[in-house]
Amino acid sequence: DAGVTQSPTHLIKTRGQQVTLRCSPKSGHDTVSWYQQALGQGPQFIFQYYEEEERQRGNFPDRFSGHQFPNYSSELNVNALLLGDSALYLCASSQQGREYFGAGTRLSVL
Amino acid sequence: GENVEQHPSTLSVQEGDSAVIKCTYSDSASNYFPWYKQELGKRPQLIIDIRSNVGEKKDQRIAVTLNKTAKHFSLHITETQPEDSAVYFCAASSPGGSNYKLTFGKGTLLTVNP
Asked: How far apart are CA A76 and CA B62, in angstroms?
């Protein structure tokens, strides 16, 4: 049984560009959450998707958007990238509350 | 919103000693408290969790205690081993629908010296 998978593992972009990150949840999980983890910090909640809709959102600007597909996989899109968007982006899938994380996508904005 | 404070930020122990990490939370409505272990360059791994209707939970060398009145919870690791070395994060869940939004502490770097 595959766990949570994310792609790509690493990404380098320049300021102003747009990026799309992808996540496949653990088998049987219907909820996907996205987190941003800056170096030396705990993960910060971006948003959560359930039944293809954004259920909850953290304190992130509208440049951060997402999508969930009928097979429960999800995408995170970030527009107009800033240097401060450089971080590890983690996807977590859950069912009945327990969240399991993917290995993350390391985004570097130059 | 929820705010989670975690202490200490670094903890160094000798192999075989116990380690305790403490967290406080602000939202009295929070009802789910997981702990994650993150080794360098790896994903956060759920190691134990507790819900607000329980005061203590144990899993082999790991235990978590919860004091709802004081709004704090703690991770206890006994008989520490070098492979316990990692960053540990506590989190609290703010209820929102049937699933949860986690707010994390800033982490504790635990080093177990052989």
From this structure: 34
Calpha distance B56→A100 (Å, rounded):
22
The answer to whether B45 contacts A101, with C-beta atoms less than 8 Å apart, is yes
Burial degree of A80 (CB within 10 A; 0-12, 13-18, 19+) = exposed
A and B: number of Cβ contacts within 8 A: 63
CA–CA dist A107, B38 (Å, integer): 18
Convert the pLDDT of each residue in A37-58 to its tens digit.
Answer: 999 899 999 999 998 999 889 9
Angstrom distance (rounded) from CA A51 to CA A68? 8
Residue B81, C-beta contacts closer than 8 angstroms, at least 6 positions apart: B15, B112
Q: Which residues of B touch A33 (CB under 8 A)?
A: 101-102
- Secondary structure element (H or E) that encloses residue B104, with its range: strand B99-104
Residues of B in contact with A40 (CB under 8 A): 106-107
Contact A33 B101 (CB under 8 A): yes
Write the pLDDT tens digit of every residue in A46-93.
999 998 999 889 999 999 999 999 999 999 999 999 999 999 999 999
